[in-house]
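Recall that a protein's primary structure is simply its ordered list of amino acids. Everything else, from secondary elements to tertiary packing, is in principle encoded there. The following example makes that idea concrete.
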Amino acid sequence: MSRAQILAVIVIFVMIAAVVGIFLFIKFRPSEDASKNNSGIPQENASVNESQNNQSINNQSQNNQSTPNQVVLVPPEITGISLREENGGYFCNKSLNPKHQVRLYTYKIIDGVKVLSENYTESKEIRDVCKSYPDINLSKEGINYNIRWEWKAVEGIEGYRIYQYCRIEEKNITRNYDYYIELNSLATKLIDNGLNLWRKYA
């Protein structure tokens, strides 16, 4: 092979190599959108957005966390009924007519502190107990009685606190929700057997 032929082969080889190199460069060169991720968000902002998304998720998680609820539920109602008892703690007759009422709260222990419900359930007033027993001659005798207060249980609490209203005008006795008693969370009734049951609210 002559020198001219060798030169021609070299030139052709160089040209082919150049064409192949240009083709490979075009095919595999970095795209103009290389700074974007698959979602179309520029990479430089992706970490910021990811951080913001994580913060949003964290905020939602914090908002949905089960934190102690300061608003404690109370039963929808509390009812009272007088119970005639020979040794009952209350007494009525023709001249004595005690009036009774209660307010029922619930409470939780939160961080070691007893937290009462913001709301309460109030009973209807019980009065004229003696008139419920028409067979009794109120001019000659009276009735000893207790009161049974009842309510439906509330879940997720530690207990109940019940405040007493009692008015016996003839004896100048008035308790205006300044006496109370506490019961555990399993209680659904209270037998109110007299003034000595209750303790003064300090």
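The mean pLDDT is 78. The helical segments are 3-28, 43-64.
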